[in-house]
Design brief:
single chain, wnt signaling pathway, 6 strands, three-stranded mixed β-sheet, glycoprotein, disulfide bond, alpha/beta
């Protein structure tokens, strides 16, 4: 099947996402699987609550009859963060497995010097996964019928979700030596489990900052609604102050 025909079978994408699909058709299965992973994690994290992501298309985040997500709520913030993280996670994992032709293991870590161990093995190329997530997932905000305030909120939360993945990369090592000794140690960088990613984003959901979008220096800027609360960072989830 030609790329254009394959992409037409994926509903809900805007023009930018369709262009990405046609150029990167071999990555679309990883993107779809990442969206499904995020959807499953959302249901797990909220399985004891009335709302549990049950009305969402996992690939496009289209909402079916769910008023909670049509507004700038913390539930909407969670969906965007977990979806962006899910796509980055699955693309990164499939790169490490050699399932995507355009990427592979992260070789840049091998250039780091360390006297205690040697970098070796296949380090997860999380920067590539994040770049794909940013290009595809964030493009979905440009073609959606929504306010500029909501777009700013969504893009912020997309990035916050990806930051959780990147900030929790870890070093894994293997010892080499006679009789179980560790005379030589090789290490590589690995992603956390997606359950851990989901749990961290859920914690951020519970502490989401309510913000307003104002004009500052001729550009829209997010500010906290209540000055008694802490300032949000790029890694925090935000929900919208409603002007209506």
């Amino acid at each position: 099947m030609q790329p254009q025909a394959s992409c037409r079978h994926l509903k809900g994408m805007n023009r930018k996402q369709m262009r990405f699909c046609r150029r990167n058709i071999e990555q679309m299965e990883s993107i779809r699987a990442g969206a499904q992973t995020a959807y499953g994690e959302c249901q797990f994290q909220f399985h004891k609550r009335r709302w549990n992501c049950s009305m969402i298309d996992p690939l496009t985040k289209e909402v079916f009859g769910d008023a909670i997500l049509r507004e700038g709520t913390r539930e909407a913030a969670f969906v965007h963060a977990i979806s962006a993280a899910g796509v980055a996670y699955r693309v990164t994992r499939d790169c490490s497995k050699g399932l995507i032709e355009k990427c592979g293991c992260d070789q840049s870590v091998h250039r780091r010097r360390n006297e205690q161990f040697s970098w070796s093995g296949c380090s997860d190329n999380v920067r590539y996964g994040i770049a794909v997530s940013r290009e595809f997932v964030d493009a979905g905000e440009r073609g959606r019928n929504q306010s500029n305030q909501r777009r700013i909120m969504n893009l912020h939360n997309n990035n916050a979700g990806r930051q959780v993945l990147e900030a929790n990369m870890r070093k894994e090592c293997k010892c080499h030596g006679l009789s179980g000794s560790c005379d030589m140690k090789t290490c590589w960088e690995s992603m956390p489990s997606f359950r851990e990613v989901g749990t961290i984003i859920k914690d951020k959901f519970d502490g989401a900052t309510e913000v307003a979008i104002i004009e500052a220096d001729n550009k829209p800027t997010m500010v906290r609604k209540n000055v008694q609360f802490k300032r949000h960072t790029k890694a925090d989830l935000v929900k919208l102050y409603s002007f209506l």
